[in-house]
Write a structure and sequence with these properties.
By secondary structure, this protein is mainly β. The protein has one helix at residues 11-14, and strands spanning 18-23, 26-30, 39-42. It has one domain (11-45).
Length: 50
């Protein structure tokens, strides 16, 4: 995947993330089980992991 890739990687949907910060309409998400950087997502894009 490249930086300009518009597809979301599968770990976003298959791995439990943790909200570590919120600024306005965005939340900083940390994925502890996957070796990836933290990412900012809009809070309306988030849902509880089940």
């Amino acid at each position: 995947a490249k930086a300009s890739d518009t597809r979301f990687p599968s770990y976003l949907f298959e791995t439990k993330g943790e909200i570590v910060d919120v600024k306005g309409d965005y939340a900083l998400i940390k994925f502890g089980k996957v070796p990836t950087p933290n990412i900012w997502l809009r809070v309306d894009q988030l849902e509880e992991f089940k």
